């Protein structure tokens, strides 16, 4: 048998070549991405980021009839999402949420960071950059503060899942995503909400049904420890003379009914309504 | 999920059980249902509840590592706690390292009971006094709820107390409970519905919802009774037992992998771990290899039916002749079928724990493999057994289904693939993709794996494991292949694997031998923009004899430029290209079959399963590493499959002549030789 020189060369090259761990999206051992650890460069390049949303309110990449039609602003100021919910992203979310591939949680959490950055951007542009805690101010007035430091959320609140679903799935996807973001941005994460009703899967319902269903699905948690933390946060923001910036985190924004119901439940804290003391935004990983 | 764990002493020594419904266990061991068939005759006197709810994985671990001791009779709660903590030492330490709770196995949870009559009395304290009458009253009171009962006094308090005490394990506490008789019937039905299966809890629930709707939502009690009766095996989806001894060595590679839990369903090492809300552990391991069929976690309940012995087929005297007559087989086919039938009829001398008997049916491409399996299926069915035909590819499943249905009109056939309907039906013949076998456990007397060397079965140990699991220990396992992997070929050569060869095609003509055609690699041809002269000549020759041409290339990216080149140089010929990424693939293949397309440029996706009557095969870059011996034999097997044109032409076009090509040619040649020697070839065609 004749084996060409190139054959040996190939073998030698293989010995020296780096071993890439498989990409979490496509499973192939391509060149890993530096921006998104866990993904390969090809999958990273193919992510359908929502760069500049068309709807400035809900962060939708296409024109949004819902927001322009209903002029009610509600409690939710803005929503920003990282990617649009394409077929590929649907498959990824399915693998994470329903199949339970929890390794994806970290990647999706990293992606959520983009949504958070977009939320900062829109908040700064709308002049919400009231001074934060004193230590966040520049020591020397000549060095401008980094833009990102101008607006920081005070607390992240994940959308809860019902206890039945939690037992079945084993994890709360919104909480996992929020935890990654909280770690990256150093924002406290408080699961302040609980789900009082077990609603059937949202995927099969119409818009009106979703709103009706969601209205009383959430409530503020009565856990005294969480309440204590929350009260302390509220007090701090009162001291600065600005509302508490709460960001609700979820995996996907479809009609916004879940997030709006969560915002409603959050201001209906036991004992008091906090309508003027909190400023609620939301970020999600995907926007359909 | 979580489960209760208790130790019980029915006769002379202690046993450990895990429970989904403690009431059933209390009833079982109290001997209250003694009059029923298959109800417990072994009454226990002592029962120690170790924990009303611990992670299921731990409960199973306790059960597996159970070491009964005589001294247990006099143990108090503290001693039991020490025992449990020692048995779960590794798990508890692991959990602490991961940062989970460290208040597992509290002494307050441990409760010792002694039997009084047909009820249970706590050994110490004044907390719960359970007399036989009271226990009965609870059961009867439940009948009362359903409008058949007799008494009800004191019922709410007793029931409320029970709920409070075992709230964690009484999943169906607020649903009407079943009487012992009903429970027994439900357990029997459940065990029958789950026969031969290995299902995770959600799958089992889906099966129950479809086949036993009356039991939906309250199957735990029935499952628990079935477990006590030995009809079902309740276990955790991961097996954590294979923990290697903690050596002080660099913790890498194979050793660290061995320390990982194993998936009981697919046999892989469970590499994932995450906090789990269902069992409360911070490091609940899960298997990442079989995620697509539902997550297999260390706390996930895996329900399996207890294995049943395999049936033995009737010995076949003159099996070959009758098979030939009944199924219209050729001489070579009948001979092979008879050899396999002989194996089926053999009495198994081995113990029940051994692996199933394996058999390789090595039939050349176009030999009519499917028909050979028919007598085997018929024999298994006649003996009252269940048969499985598995193949790695879904399109093969869909193609085989009508043929098997036609051959066995009386048998109930289940066709399983990802997303198929009728997943939970009981069937005599199951036709499935190999992935679906993960849902079976020792359920079949006869397992036939078709195209076992095809992707993804070949090279996926998970599927091989699943296939082996699906066969009963005393059953028969038949591999069906035209190109068995080297390992099996070696076993055949060494005489370690029984086999039968079908060296000739059904039409009795020899296989076309591939010819060599030296040419530049495709990459260079594309760069030069001109096809090699020799190749063009042979292509023209094939077109002149009015044959259709398979042109195999090694890479998808070559298809488009090669198409352009071919269309230019062979104008007037209908040439198309297709690959796995082509949405119009099925249409193009259909058009090729109907002779609307003359030449099809494609990759190995069409190497098997496609039969085109009058066809020639050209394999470009035949020295590519992507074409192994099996692929080459399969591709060459596309030629000369019809009676009208048995001598197709096959060309291996490449600059080099490598090992795979040599082996492929010698395999084909040796098959032809065997066929000639055994006299299967048609005389005048003999070369």
Give an account of the 3D structure:
The complex is a heterodimer of chains A (288) and B (687). Chain A is of the alpha/beta class. Chain A has one domain. Helices cover 39% and strands 14% of the residues of chain A. Chain A has a four-stranded parallel β-sheet. In chain A, strands 3-4 form a two-stranded antiparallel ribbon. With 687 residues, chain B is of the alpha/beta class. Chain B folds into three domains: 2-180, no CATH class; 319-502, P-loop containing nucleotide triphosphate hydrolases (Rossmann fold), CATH 3.40.50; 515-685, P-loop containing nucleotide triphosphate hydrolases (Rossmann fold, 3-Layer(aba) Sandwich), CATH 3.40.50.300. Helices cover 35% and strands 19% of the residues of chain B. Chain B has 22 helices and 25 strands. A seven-stranded parallel β-sheet of chain B has the order 15-16-14-17-18-13-19. Mean pLDDT of chain B is 82; it is low at 125-176. Chains A and B meet through helix 6 of A and loops of B.
How would you concisely characterize the structure shown here?
Chain A is of the alpha/beta class.
Secondary structure layout plus pairing:
The complex is a heterodimer of chains A (288) and B (687).
Chain A: H1 5-16, H2 41-45, H3 65-69, E1 76-84, H4 87-97, H5 103-125, E2 155-158, H6 163-169, H7 173-185, E3 193-195, H8 207-214, E4 218-220, H9 224-240, E5 244-253, H10 257-267, E6 278-287
Parallel strand pairs in A: 1-6, 2-5, 5-6
Antiparallel strand pairs in A: 3-4
Chain B: E1 2-9, E2 15-19, H1 22-30, E3 46-55, H2 56-64, H3 77-87, H4 89-98, E4 111-116, E5 119-122, H5 132-145, H6 155-165, H7 180-193, E6 198-200, H8 201-211, H9 219-228, E7 232-236, E8 238-239, H10 253-258, E9 262-263, E10 272-274, E11 284-286, E12 301-305, H11 319-327, H12 331-345, E13 357-363, H13 369-382, E14 387-391, H14 394-407, E15 413-416, E16 429-433, E17 444-450, H15 461-470, E18 471-481, H16 486-493, E19 498-502, E20 515-518, H17 522-528, H18 533-544, E21 548-552, H19 559-569, E22 575-578, H20 585-593, E23 599-602, E24 615-620, H21 629-636, E25 650-654, H22 659-677
Parallel strand pairs in B: 13-18, 13-19, 14-16, 14-17, 15-16, 17-18, 20-25, 21-23, 21-24, 22-23, 24-25
Antiparallel strand pairs in B: 1-2, 1-3, 3-4, 4-5, 6-12, 7-12, 8-9, 10-11
Helix pairs in contact in B: 1-9, 7-9, 11-12, 12-13, 21-22
């Amino acid at each position: 048998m004749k084996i060409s020189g190139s054959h040996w060369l190939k073998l030698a090259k293989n010995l020296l070549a780096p071993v890439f761990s498989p990409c979490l999206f496509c499973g192939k051992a391509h060149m890993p991405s530096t921006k998104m650890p866990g993904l390969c460069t090809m999958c990273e390049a193919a992510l359908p980021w929502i760069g500049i949303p068309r709807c400035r309110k809900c962060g939708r990449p296409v024109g949004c009839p819902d927001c322009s039609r209903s002029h009610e602003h509600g409690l939710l100021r803005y929503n920003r999402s990282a990617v649009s919910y394409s077929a590929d992203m649907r498959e990824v979310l399915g693998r994470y949420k329903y199949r339970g591939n929890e390794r994806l949680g970290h990647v999706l959490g990293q992606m959520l960071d983009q949504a958070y950055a977009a939320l900062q951007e829109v908040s700064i542009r709308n002049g919400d950059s009231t001074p934060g805690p004193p230590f966040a101010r520049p020591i020397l007035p000549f060095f401008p503060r980094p833009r990102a430091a101008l607006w920081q959320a005070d607390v992240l609140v994940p959308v809860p899942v019902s206890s039945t679903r939690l037992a079945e799935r084993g994890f709360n996807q919104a909480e996992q995503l929020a935890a990654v973001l909280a770690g990256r941005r150093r924002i406290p994460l408080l699961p302040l909400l609980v789900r009082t009703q077990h609603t059937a899967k949202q995927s099969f319902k119409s818009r009106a049904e979703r709103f009706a269903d969601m209205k009383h699905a959430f409530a503020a948690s009565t856990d005294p420890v969480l309440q204590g933390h929350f009260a302390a946060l509220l007090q701090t923001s009162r001291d600065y003379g600005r509302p508490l910036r709460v960001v609700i985190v979820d995996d996907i924004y479809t009609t916004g009914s879940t997030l709006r119901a969560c915002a409603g439940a959050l201001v209906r804290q036991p004992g008091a309504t906090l309508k003027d003391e909190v400023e609620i935004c939301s970020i999600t990983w995907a926007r359909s | 999920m979580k489960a209760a764990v208790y130790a019980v002493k029915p006769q002379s020594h202690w046993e450990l059980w895990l429970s989904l419904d403690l009431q059933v266990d209390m009833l079982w061991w109290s001997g209250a249902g003694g009059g029923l068939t298959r109800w417990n005759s072994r009454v226990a006197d002592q029962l120690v509840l170790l924990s009303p709810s611990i992670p299921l994985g731990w409960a199973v671990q306790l059960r597996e590592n159970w070491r009964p001791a005589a001294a247990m009779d006099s143990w108090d709660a503290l001693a039991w706690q020490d025992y449990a903590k020692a048995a779960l030492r590794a798990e508890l330490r692991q959990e602490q390292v991961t940062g989970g709770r460290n208040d597992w196995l509290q002494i307050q949870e441990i409760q010792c009971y002694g039997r009084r009559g047909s009820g249970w009395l706590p050994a110490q304290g004044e907390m719960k006094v359970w007399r036989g009458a009271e226990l009965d009253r609870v059961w009867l009171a439940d009948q009362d709820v359903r409008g058949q009962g007799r008494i009800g006094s004191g019922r709410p308090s007793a029931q409320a107390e029970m709920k409070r005490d075992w709230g964690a394990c009484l999943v169906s506490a607020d649903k009407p409970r079943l009487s012992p008789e009903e429970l027994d019937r439900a357990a029997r039905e459940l065990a029958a519905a789950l026969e031969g299966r290995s299902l995770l809890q959600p799958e089992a629930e889906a099966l129950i919802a479809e086949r036993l709707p009356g039991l939906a939502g309250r199957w735990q009690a029935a499952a628990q009774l079935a477990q006590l009766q030995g009809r079902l095996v309740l276990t955790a989806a991961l097996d954590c037992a294979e923990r290697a001894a903690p050596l002080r060595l660099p913790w890498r590679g194979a050793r660290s992998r061995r320390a990982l839990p194993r998936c009981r369903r697919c046999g892989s090492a469970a590499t994932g771990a995450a906090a789990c809300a269902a069992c409360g552990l911070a490091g609940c391991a899960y298997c990442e290899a079989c995620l697509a069929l539902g997550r297999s976690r260390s706390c996930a309940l895996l329900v399996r039916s207890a294995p049943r012995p395999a049936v033995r087929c009737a010995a076949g005297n003159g099996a070959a002749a009758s098979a030939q007559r009944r199924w219209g087989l050729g001489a070579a086919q009948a001979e092979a079928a008879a050899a396999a039938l002989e194996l089926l009829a053999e009495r198994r001398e081995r113990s029940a724990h051994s692996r199933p008997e394996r058999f390789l049916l090595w039939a050349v491409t176009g030999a009519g493999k499917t028909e050979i399996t028919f007598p085997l299926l018929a024999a298994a069915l006649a003996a009252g057994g269940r048969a499985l035909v598995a193949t790695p590819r879904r399109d093969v499943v869909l193609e085989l289904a009508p043929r098997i249905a036609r051959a066995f009109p009386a048998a109930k056939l289940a066709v399983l693939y990802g997303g198929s309907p009728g997943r939970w039906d009981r069937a005599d013949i199951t036709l499935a993709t190999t992935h679906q076998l993960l849902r079976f456990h020792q359920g079949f007397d006869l397992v036939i794996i078709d195209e076992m060397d095809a992707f993804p079965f070949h090279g996926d140990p998970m599927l091989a494991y699943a296939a082996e699991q699906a066969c009963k220990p005393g059953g028969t396992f038949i591999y069906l292949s035209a190109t068995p992997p080297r390992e099996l070929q070696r076993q055949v050569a060494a005489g370690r694997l029984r086999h039968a060869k079908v060296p000739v095609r059904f039409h009795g003509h020899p296989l076309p031998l591939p010819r060599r055609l030296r040419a530049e690699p495709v990459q260079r041809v594309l760069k030069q923009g001109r096809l090699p002269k020799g190749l063009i000549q042979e292509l023209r020759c094939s077109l002149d004899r009015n044959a259709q041409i398979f042109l195999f290339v090694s890479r998808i990216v070559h298809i488009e430029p090669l198409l352009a080149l071919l269309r230019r140089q062979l104008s007037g010929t209908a040439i198309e290209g297709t690959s796995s990424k082509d949405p119009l693939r099925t249409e193009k293949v259909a058009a090729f079959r109907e002779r609307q397309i003359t030449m099809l440029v494609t990759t190995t996706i069409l190497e098997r399963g496609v039969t085109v009557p009058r066809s020639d095969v050209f394999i470009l870059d035949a020295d590519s590493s992507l074409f192994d011996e099996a692929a080459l034999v399969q591709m060459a097997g596309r030629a000369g499959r019809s009676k009208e044109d048995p001598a197709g032409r096959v060309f291996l076009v490449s600059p080099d002549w490598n090992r795979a090509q040599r082996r492929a040619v010698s395999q084909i040649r040796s098959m032809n030789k065997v066929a000639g020697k055994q006299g299967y070839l048609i005389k005048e065609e003999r070369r």
